[in-house]
Structure formats: C-alpha cells, structure tokens
Amino acid sequence: MTRPPAPRRLLRTSDGDTPVIDQPVRMVSVDTPEKAHYAGLPATAQMKLDRCRSRLSDGTFDAFLPERLRAYLAGRLTPTAAERHIAAGNRASAEFDALLDRRLTRPSGPRRRAAIIPTGEILDRYGRLLAYLAPWFDADASDPLPPRDHPDRRTFNLDMVASGWGAMFLVHPSLPHNTDLNRLVTEADRAWSERRGAWAEFGEDLLLAYEFRACVKLGSEKLDDPKAAVDDAYQRVCVDLRDLRVVGLHGYHEVPPSHRLFIWADELEQARKDLDLPGH
C-alpha cells in the first residue's frame, strides 16, 4: 500500500542508492499524554475542552454519540483537565528521557545504541515508523545478548506502560506476539490497578491521550458539521481483550484501560479474520 509522501530531512548519503534521512518513530502499543504542541498551552487547550463539554450536554452530539459516552467524557472534562493532561505530558517526556539515560548508559564505554524493531504496518498514516525500541546489544563476547526474559531485553514501550506514564494503546495490526502481548497486558493492568505514574500524580480521571485528542477535535472553535467531527474523533473500534467482545467506536469506556484493543473501523472485517473475533 502506497502512503502519501512526507517531508524528511536528508542527513547524508551512504552511497548512490542509500540516503540517510531524519525519520520520526512512533512507539507502538503505548500512548503518553500530549504536550502543549498538540492543542496549545493549558489555557488555550482548556477552552477547547470546555467547548467540548458544553456540546456534550447541549444536544450538539446527541444524535452521534451515545449518552453513556457523553456522560463519561463530561465527568472527566474538569476545569483543570487540560492543565493536568499537559503537565502529565511533560512529566512523561521527562520520564522517558530518564529511562533512556538509565538503560542506555553502560558502566563504562560509549552510550549504548537503541534497537529499532519495526512492526505491523511499518509506517503509520503520518509517515512515522511504527516500532518497538530497546537497548542494542552487539551479541558478541564483549557485549552478550541477555536471555529473552532478562529485564535488560524489555522494550522501552513496555517500560513506559509499566511505569504508568504511558497508557497501553494496542492498534491492529501493529500487535506484539502472544507472549509479549500477555506481558504488556499484565504490566498495563498492574499500572492501572495500582494507579502508577500519571494516575498517581494527576488523578485517575486524567484524560488519556487518545481521549484528549478526541475531545480537542470535538471542541474545535469552528464546528460546521457535528457528525463529521465525531467521525474524525472516533475512527477506531474498541475490542475488550478479556472476551474479544467488539464494543464499537464509542464503547471503549466500558473496558478497563489495560484491556482495550483498537482497530481502524475500515479494517474491522480483516481484523475479525486475523484475530478470530466473534461475528456480528
């Protein structure tokens, strides 16, 4: 499948057919809170969330969003929702930097490189490389590769979920293998149950990143077509990993954060075959 072109900075050429570019990576299976670059500084972002909350209660979206989801979101769109979310995004970024320093720093010698493990679709709809990140080992006598279950082999994706600074965000088809999936769900469940990281510091009603992005879209200043705004905000169907029940475009809130699997709506039928999901 051909993706739309995306601008990239050319760093250098290795040879006549190998340019080296600056390529952004989107870490899969994890979603951290957004920083101010997404919806503006807290005051600006809060205006968008406030508009979203008003529209959820004034009938604007009644025909397009079920009442239970509208009530769920309205309860989370507090007067400090944007401030807390963006602060959590800054903290998550700092935690990730600290994680990189901790796990890529060797006792002696140069800083360890990162291993990039592409997965699933390889490139997302924005041209970002979809991948897992982990420390790189040379796998020789001087730098042996640890056993598969050794903590040093854990991906940074898993570590961010386990710390509570990133919510589990499984999106088909970029899914880990069964063993890694089970480990990820277990760590995500612990982080949520024990209210680690962002939930501990900013409250369990903190908007998750995908909720924040959806509410910002629903709260845009110009709203000519409410249905189009809802369709843009909710493009992924949610599946409950506990029983593989498809809860639909607007039912994710019925499932604990640690058991949500998302599927692009236009790929649901293929996902039913790939994952052996129940039929209609």
UniProtKB/TrEMBL annotation:
<protein>
    <submittedName>
        <fullName>Uncharacterized protein</fullName>
    </submittedName>
</protein>
<dbReference type="InterPro" id="IPR035437">
    <property type="entry name" value="SNase_OB-fold_sf"/>
</dbReference>
